[in-house]
Write a structure and sequence with these properties.
CATH superfamily of the largest domain: Ribonuclease Inhibitor
Structural class: alpha/beta
CATH architecture of the largest domain: Alpha-Beta Horseshoe
Largest sheet: 10 strands, mixed
CATH class of the largest domain: Alpha Beta
Helix content: 10-25%
C-alpha cells in the first residue's frame, strides 16, 4: 500500500512539474509570471505553488485565445445592405455608397445591436445625406469616419458626441457645409485628423475648433474662407502641426489667429488672394519649417518677414 501511494505521488509530482513548466513558459510568452522567474523552471515547486500556477493558467487562458482569434466577424450581409462589411485586423471596414439616410440609419441600427465590435473604418461616400441626425452613431465604436461627397450641409450638435472616446480621424470633405459645426466637434477629445476640404465654408468664427485639443492635422483646402477671427484656432495650440488653408479667398495673413499656434510645423496658404505680408504676420509660428504661399498676388516681401523661422 505504501509503495502504491509513493508511485501515485510521483505521478502527480511529474504531472505537476510538467504543468508548472508549461505555465512558466506560457507566462513568459504573455509577459506575466508573478511567482517565479523564467529560470526558476528548473526548481521543483511545491504542490501548493503548482496549484496556484495552474489556477493562473486557467484564469488567463481566454486572454491569448482572444488575441489569436483577432479578426472580428461582420454582421450578416443581408442585414447591412446596401452597405458592405469587410473584416480587417483592427476592426471592421464598412462602406455605404450611393444610398440615402433611411438605409444608412437601418445599417447603423444593426451595428448598435453589436456593442462589442469595433468599426475601424466607416465610409459613407456618394450618398444623399443632407443632415447628420442626433445620436445616429450612439453605441457604435468608430475609429475613422468618412462622410464624403454626400451633400452634407447640417451636422446636428449631438450627432458625433457619443464618439468622443474612440474617433481619431474625421473626413467631411466634398460636402456642402457653410460653417464649421463647432458644437458637434466639442466632445471629440481624441481626434487627430480633421479634413473639411472642398466645402462652402466662408469664415472661421471665434473658437471654431474648441474642444479639439488633440488635433494634429486640420485641412480646409478649397473652401470660400475670406475671414478668420482672432481666436478661431483657440484650443489647437497644444498639438496642431499641420494647417492647410490653401484654395480659399484670404486677402491677408490672419496674424492674430496664427499667434497661438507655436506647435505648427507646416502651413499651406497657396492659391489665395493675399496681396501683401508684413514682418509680424508669422511671428507666433515659432516651430514652422514649411510655408506655402504660391499662387497668391504678392507684390513684395519684406526682407525680415521670415527671419525668425527655421525654413
Amino acid at each position: 500500500l505504501q509503495q502504491s501511494w509513493r508511485q501515485s505521488w510521483r505521478r502527480r509530482s511529474v504531472t505537476c512539474d510538467r504543468v508548472f513548466c508549461d505555465v512558466v513558459a506560457f507566462n513568459k510568452l504573455i509577459g506575466f509570471s508573478p511567482f517565479y522567474k523564467y529560470e526558476d523552471v528548473l526548481v521543483r515547486p511545491s504542490m501548493a505553488a503548482c496549484r496556484w500556477e495552474w489556477l493562473i493558467l486557467v484564469l488567463c487562458l481566454p486572454f491569448p485565445l482572444a488575441l489569436a482569434q483577432g479578426v472580428q466577424n461582420c454582421p450578416p450581409r443581408n442585414e447591412l445592405e446596401p452597405c458592405v462589411c469587410t473584416p480587417k485586423k483592427n476592426g471592421l471596414d464598412i462602406l455605404c455608397e450611393f444610398t440615402d439616410l433611411n438605409h444608412i440609419s437601418k445599417a447603423m441600427a444593426v451595428l448598435k445591436g453589436k456593442p462589442s465590435i469595433i468599426i475601424f473604418y466607416l465610409k459613407l461616400r456618394h450618398n444623399n445625406l443632407p443632415k447628420l441626425q442626433s445620436f445616429v452613431f450612439l453605441g457604435i465604436d468608430i475609429r475613422h469616419l468618412t462622410i464624403h461627397n454626400s451633400s452634407l450641409s447640417v451636422i446636428e450638435e449631438s450627432s458625433l458626441s457619443s464618439m468622443g472616446k474612440g474617433l481619431t480621424q474625421l473626413d467631411l470633405s466634398q460636402n456642402r457645409l457653410s460653417t464649421v459645426p463647432s458644437p458637434a466637434f466639442r466632445n471629440l477629445h481624441h481626434l487627430l485628423i480633421l479634413n473639411m476640404n472642398h466645402n462652402r465654408i466662408t469664415a472661421l468664427h471665434s473658437k471654431a475648433f474648441e474642444g479639439l485639443d488633440t488635433l494634429e492635422i486640420l485641412t480646409l483646402y478649397e473652401n470660400k474662407i475670406s475671414n478668420i477671427e482672432g481666436d478661431a484656432f483657440k484650443g489647437l495650440d497644444k498639438k496642431l502641426r499641420r494647417l492647410n488653408l490653401g484654395g480659399n479667398k484670404l486677402t491677408s495673413v490672419p496674424q492674430e489667429a496664427f499667434s497661438i499656434l507655436d506647435t505648427l510645423k507646416k502651413l499651406e496658404m497657396q492659391e489665395n488672394s493675399i496681396t501683401s505680408i508684413t514682418e509680424g504676420d508669422f511671428e507666433g509660428l515659432k516651430n514652422l519649417d514649411s510655408l506655402g504661399l504660391a499662387h497668391n498676388h504678392l507684390r513684395e516681401v519684406p526682407g525680415r518677414v521670415f527671419s525668425h523661422l527655421t525654413l
